[in-house]
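pinging the channel bc i need a second pair of eyes. not urgent but kinda urgent?? the chain im working w is below, pasted from the shared doc
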Amino acid sequence: MTLEKIKRYTQPHQFEPLLPQQRLDELRRPARTVVERSLRLAGAAHPATIASLRELVRAMNSYYSNRIEGQSTHPINIERALHRDFSEQPDVARLQRLALAHIEAERELEQRVVAGDRPLTATFLRKAHAALYGRLAVEDRTTSEERIVVPGALRTEQVAVGRHEPPLFSSLPAFLDRLDVAYSRPLAVDDMLPGIAAAHHRGAWVHPFLDGNGRAVRLQTHCALWPLSSGLWSMSRGLARKRDTYYALLDAADSHRHGDLDGRGNLSEKLLWEWCEWFIALAADQVDFMTRMLDLDAMKARIAALITYRSTLDRRIRSEAIVPLHHLFLAGPTPRGEFQQMTGLGERTARALLSRLIDTGLVTSTGHTAPVQMAFPLDALQFLLPELYPEAATQAP
């Protein structure tokens, strides 16, 4: 389809409605449940444990967001990139650098939200794009068509995305201003998720950048959800696992109004509503999944299964580690001597066991005499957090 055959958007009223206006209670009820369950989730473990999990989820987000774009790298390669260990294969190394940039950008943007930035603004969307692409060298932000992506810069040419031609590039400021009017104001609790869902679609619809629009919008969505999620659950995980549906519903919500019963705007309110409904259900699924993962009794059983398995392969790992590891999950950083006492072993044996747990990454510490806390290494996730990040248990190519 040529650009001439696609309707050209030049006026902001052409992408109304920006929020569903009908059947709002059918969105608000499940949205309220997600909010309540998500806020409870943040108290499921010690803050130090939550912080460790948050770093794991952040790495996972980079994997899934890039996988959505068909440019993912293996979780093991992401882990290596975090230690500045890059592959000798140029294509793999480039994807490693992209994943690392995503992780660092997400961390920076979260801090902006904590400092008071409003994430559902056009300015924040541009910051998200700049935070990601500003961390990449020119060769890593050059498209397959040899176009250089400028961090945070609005596109200066017309593009087509499948069936959709986004607004004329010269009209982008007006469309972005309209996004601000619709989404930047504080939302009532029950309206947060519908608003975030709608902003995700309409931000992608505007397509403000030459490239990287999907990644920037997902970073914005992650940050908009931060006050609820605390970084503990991931929409990118859900979107990647339902990638075809994600793209199909985004595409459907691009559609024009279907008759007089389909709202009063130029675009379909019914299909925007269906997108929001699906987005909220996906958020609920991610919250419920992580709630199951962090259940205290279930975690103790999974720690026991992990230690039992590893003790059959490594005689330096002992079943006496189960109780103190569960304590770390619950209580956070613990003095080394206290951890060793909880094993019930002799001093020398307990010290050797703790040393081995640190060597294998299950326990971490900032120094030789500093307290210890629980960690979540990739090779333990199939036991500790099954199905959270199953790709991490596979072998890197």
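so Confidence is low (pLDDT under 50) at residues 1-6. and The longest strand covers residues 363-365. — does that match what u expected or am i reading it wrong
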